[in-house]
Design a protein that fits this description.
Layout: E1 3-7, H1 12-24, E2 29-32, H2 40-45, E3 53-56, E4 59-62, H3 66-78
Helix pairs in contact: 1-3
Length: 80
Amino acid sequence: MRIIIYTRDNCVQCNATKSALDRSGLDYHLINLDEQPEEIAALKALGHRQLPVVRVDEESWSGFRPDKIAALRQLAATGA
């Protein structure tokens, strides 16, 4: 399972998402859109209009989603 978080500096929901993933012991890769603005068009093409955007393999969601993070934690625990 590969987790990517698209974030920006000083983004409250982004920080909450990173903290929740850290507490869950899940590894992730960060892409800061302030440093890589060329990624924004691809996220908009997927229909995302808010941050963070979290991509897990082929699935993605935006905003702070504790329910989705809990599901990832369970997937990791079962080794799926």
